[in-house]
Q: What sequence folds into this?
């Protein structure tokens, strides 16, 4: 782990845990973080300017990436899952998230538990996508039934991804 200019610990290789800060659960820290994010950074201003000048259609690009992932996930799920974690951070379309959620449910049953790296990404994505969607009671029940299996895993990074 290393520390960046803001005093944040970075370079954590566990998914979903890229940065940690001292007192990150403090209400004052949360308010300060929200107030800082209101002032748009120079980097984000430059990015918006570049997108406007380059005439990029971000939604079409996201749709293209989604289509590629959808085709590749059946054959090369071990390669696609880490990228899918990052894709879900920018994906805003509920239909795409719902479709990926259903694909992951099928993949979760097919991928053996011995494939710990894939299972780490699968449980993280299932939990994240369930939080983004409005799940049915059956979906919540299914998720609650598989979570204990992942929490009992001998691999720390699978337990961490589950939490």
A:
């Amino acid at each position: 782990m290393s520390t960046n200019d803001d005093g944040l610990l970075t370079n954590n290789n566990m998914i979903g845990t890229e940065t940690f800060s001292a007192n990150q659960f403090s209400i004052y820290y949360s308010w300060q973080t929200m107030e800082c994010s209101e002032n748009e950074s120079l980097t984000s201003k430059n990015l918006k300017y570049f997108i406007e000048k380059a005439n990029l259609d971000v939604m079409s690009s996201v749709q293209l990436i989604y289509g590629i992932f959808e085709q590749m996930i059946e054959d090369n799920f071990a390669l696609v899952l880490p990228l899918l974690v990052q894709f879900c951070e920018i994906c805003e379309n509920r239909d795409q998230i719902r479709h990926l959620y259903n694909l992951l449910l099928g993949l979760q049953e097919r991928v053996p538990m011995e494939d710990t790296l894939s299972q780490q990404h699968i449980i993280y994505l299932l939990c994240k996508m369930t939080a983004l969607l409005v799940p049915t009671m059956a979906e919540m029940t299914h998720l609650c039934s598989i979570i204990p299996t992942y929490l009992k895993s001998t691999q720390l990074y699978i337990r961490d991804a589950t939490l």
In short: The chain has eight helices and two strands.
